[in-house]
Amino acid sequence: FGVKIYICITPIICCVYIIFFCVYIVINTIIFFLMEAEKEKKINFELEKSLSKLEIHFNLVKEHFKDSADLVFFSTMKLYPQVKKILKEASQNDSNKTKLRNQLYSILKTKFSIFKSQQKVVRLQFILPDGTIFLKMRNPKVFGGKDFCRQDIAFVNQNHQYISNFIADACSYNFRSLYPIFDKDNNYLGLLEVGFSTKDFQEYLTEVSKLHIHFLIKKNHLTQQHKNYCESAENPNFFLMLTNHHTKQKCVIENKKKLETIFTDILFKMKKGKKFVLYKKDNQKIDILSFLPIYDFSNKYIVGWLVLYEKKDTLLPTFHHADV
């Protein structure tokens, strides 16, 4: 009789064990997915925070240089009302342009030196309504020609609208603001271009943000080689702007090795032309890379990228807990 009871109980015990085992599996699966979801939540929060940080600092520095350009333009127009008179005469009288150019250069020479030292201006030039270069303050001997590759100049001359953004010519890539100039009767007299070097922009961005940011410039926007640029580690179609904080050894040669495992992802996402962020985990290090596209003055075409590098070792416990 005892044997019969044992035989009857044994299947019940087996069923109980199976139920407990299934419950154990289900509970652990739920815990695993909850931990993974929490892990992704923390990672995404840090990624979004990094990208937002890059955007905020970029816009702040951009506004700083816009304000500096505004100061240069409005102070020039207010302090030297004869500028408009000279430009008007230059547009109407070809034979007298040399005299008028020398006159304008003499008027602004001292002020330009102040702009260079205080506002970090590297370019101050006047363009006539037909696109002819009337006066380059940093190189007054170069004049009379037309820069046909400068679509921004053509845009301002045609539309009489102010623009400000990163703009390239044959040998440089600068942050420039172009201002249309009018006389008291609202007749268009030409434009004034105020330019700042990309190097100064990036160094100021580094000083203000205290972050390590790479400034990438599309290769086809610079037709001449320059010592301040070299092929970037992030994308072979872009140059990296070199500064005191950005050396070729550290930011290109060493960085290429670090980016090997995510290099294909970077190229794929950059090709899409939208801002993005990703991370790279190596042993006991986590790096977050945020990519922000820079558009031309029309906001249609990408001319460069900003890449923020941040170490986020605070995320390591998140990975450790998820792995347990």
Q: Please, could you describe this protein's structure?
A:
The protein is elongated. The longest helix has about 80 residues, at about 1-80. With about 325 residues, the protein is an alpha+beta fold. Helix 1 crosses helix 5 (about 200-210) and helix 1 packs antiparallel against helix 8 (about 315-324). A hairpin with a 5-residue loop joins strand 1 (about 125) and strand 2 (about 135). It has helices spanning about 1-80, 80-90, 95-120, 150-160, 200-210, 250-260, 265-270, 315-324, and strands at about 125, 135, 165-170, 175-180, 190-195, 210-220, 230, 240, 275-280, 285-295, 300-310.
Helix content: 40-55%
Low-confidence stretches: 1-7, 320-324
Largest sheet: 6 strands, antiparallel
User: In percent terms, what proportion of residues is strand?
Assistant: 15-25%
> How widely separated are the two ends?
49 Å
Number of strands: 11
Tally of DSSP helical segments: 8
**Mind telling me the C-alpha Rg?**
30 Å
If you average the pLDDT, what whole number results? 84
Alpha-beta classification: alpha+beta
Order of helices and strands: HHHEEHEEEHEEEHHEEEH
Q: Strands of the largest sheet, in order across it?
A: 7-8-6-11-10-9
Shape: elongated
